[in-house]
């Protein structure tokens, strides 16, 4: 592969600068504050010049959304890679990493997981394409469940019961991943919805009425969520400060 030309390098740098400008506006004013005109003004460009890089605002926001999925995926993979070989330890580390990222970047979290932006693919729509950054993020969280299945360590309802109750309803997920076993699909989806619910309620400020430490609640729920995968019945709060797996792990 030949090295990029000077023109290509300059174009790539300008694309990055435009997206960085869009992210700054997103953080300070929400998605409503993001406009091609404002970005052009900040960059010292004319508004029409930006259209050489993005056809419209929706295209820019879509590109930024893809970058944010990639950023969260990289954060999750880094956490997984420091957690050792145990799939449950990996899941625990990735869930904590996702929460930390979301709390530190509420505007970005809202863009990719919150209210749909007109003209920009939602997370649900994005995951229909296995190569979309949103789908690649989901695949990182799915992989440990597949590993648990290979190890014969994935508890849960019997597959026959799941097929009877949810078989046709989980087809969008099971068929997308090459006929994913229904017990894996259910375990993954059950964990993902609980993770997203906890993180979203904290980011959107919907827990302040009930708890003064969302992290403590998150850690307690994380221990309860993954206790069956560890082969332990306990669901009490874990010890420590959230930097490692809950105490009492039985799967090693």
Automatic annotation (TrEMBL):
Keywords: DNA-binding, Transcription, Transcription regulation. One of its GO terms (molecular function) is transcription cis-regulatory region binding. Signal peptide: none annotated. InterPro entries: Homeodomain-like_sf (IPR009057), HTH-type_TetR-like_transc_reg (IPR050109), HTH_TetR (IPR001647), MT1864/Rv1816-like_C (IPR025996), Tet_transcr_reg_TetR-rel_C_sf (IPR036271). The keyword Transcription regulation applies. SUPFAM superfamilies: Homeodomain-like (SSF46689), Tetracyclin repressor-like, C-terminal domain (SSF48498). It comes from the Bacteria. Residues 229-252 are annotated as: Disordered. This is TetR/AcrR family transcriptional regulator.
């Amino acid at each position: 592969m030949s090295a990029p030309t000077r023109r290509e390098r300059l174009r790539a740098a300008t694309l990055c600068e435009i997206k960085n400008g869009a992210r700054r506006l997103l953080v300070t004013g929400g998605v409503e504050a993001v406009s091609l005109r404002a970005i052009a003004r900040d960059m010292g460009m004319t508004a029409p010049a930006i259209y050489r890089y993005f056809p419209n605002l929706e295209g820019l926001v879509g590109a930024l959304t893809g970058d944010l999925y990639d950023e969260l995926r990289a954060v999750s993979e880094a956490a997984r890679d420091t957690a050792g070989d145990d799939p449950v330890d990996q899941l625990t580390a990735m869930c904590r990493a996702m929460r930390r990222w979301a709390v530190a970047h509420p505007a970005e979290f809202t863009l990719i997981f919150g209210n749909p932006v007109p003209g920009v693919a939602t997370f649900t729509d994005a995951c229909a394409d296995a190569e979309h950054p949103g789908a690649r993020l989901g695949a990182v969280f799915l992989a440990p469940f597949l590993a648990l299945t290979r190890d014969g360590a994935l508890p849960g309802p019997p597959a026959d019961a799941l097929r009877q109750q949810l078989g046709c309803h989980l087809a969008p997920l099971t068929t997308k991943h090459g006929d994913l076993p229904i017990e894996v699909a259910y375990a993954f989806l059950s964990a993902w919805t609980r993770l997203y619910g906890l993180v979203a309620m904290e980011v959107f400020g919907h827990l302040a009425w009930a708890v003064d430490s969302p992290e403590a609640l998150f850690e307690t729920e994380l221990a309860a969520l993954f206790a069956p995968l560890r082969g332990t019945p306990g669901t009490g709060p874990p010890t420590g400060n959230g930097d490692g797996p809950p105490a009492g792990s039985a799967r090693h």
